[in-house]
Amino acid sequence: MSGVEIAGLILGALPLVIHAVERYSQGVQSVRRYIKYRRELESLVRRLGLEVEMFRNICEELLNGIVSIDRMANMLDDPAGSVWSDPEIDQRLQKRLHRSYTVYLNTVKDMVVVLEEFKIRLKIDAMGEVSIEGSHSRGPQAHNEHIRFFRVSSLTLFLGAARRP
User: Fold this and answer.
1) Are 142 and 136 in contact (CB under 8 A)?
2) Is 124 helix (H, G, I), strand (E, B) or coil?
3) Closest to 23 measured CA to CA, from 114, 104, 95, 128
4) CB proximity list for 97: less than 8 A, separation 6 or greater
5) 89, 67 in Cβ contact below 8 A?
6) Which helix (H) or strand (E) holds 36?
7) How many other C-beta atoms can be found within 10 angstroms of the C-beta atom of residue 44?
8) Could you tell me which residue, 31 or 37, shows the higher pLDDT?
9) Which tens digit of pLDDT belongs to each residue from 55-85?
10) What CA–CA distances, in Å, run from 66 to 10, 29, 87, 103, 118?
11) Alpha carbon distance 84, 97 (integer Å)
12) CB-side exposure of 122: number of CA atoms within 13 Å?
């Protein structure tokens, strides 16, 4: 899979993760638990939203001069579109980034791994739908596992991968 295709995957997956976190936040059943974690979940949604915009800006900078403005707009508006798999675009990107292309490719691959972990933990299916009911039926322990996951592991990994040179 080319670096451009992976960037499209990330642009498509980030909004799904944000939606899942928002849905999880809305689905917290206990008022006490909601009050305890509300700020953290809201902060996570804001931080992920910021990451989406920052990554989108990076994609715009990378694609600027490689594709037309109209084509770039179409690519950014349709992250799952077939234009992301155009080998000519990837070749131009490789030429632009030269030695940095491998670093870029490894970084976006790391981001995809973290996003996939988010999707698994948040139970996001192939259609982008979220299933949080199962975690609540397993009780507070499952809920606490989600919160611990949000706070510590994957967000830190994702933010680190996004900023790695």
Assistant:
1) yes
2) strand
3) 128
4) 62, 104
5) yes
6) helix 31-63
7) 21
8) 37
9) 899 999 999 999 999 999 999 988 888 888 8
10) 19, 48, 12, 19, 31
11) 17
12) 30
> Do 7 and 112 form a contact (C-beta atoms < 8 A)?
no
Residue 146 corresponds to which amino acid?
H
Choose between 123 and 76: higher pLDDT: 76
- CB of 19 within 8 A of CB of 64? no
The DSSP line for 53-111 is HHHHHHHHHHHBTTB-HHHHHHHHH-TTSGGGG-HHHHHHHHHHHGGGHHHHHHHHHHH
- Which residue matches tokens 């799904």? 16
Answer yes or no: are the C-beta atoms of 24 and 146 closer than 8 Å: yes
Contact 122, 13 (CB under 8 A): no
Give the Cα separation of 103 and 98 in Å (integer): 10
* Unique residue bearing structure tokens 């809920």: 143
Place of tokens 């155009």: 86
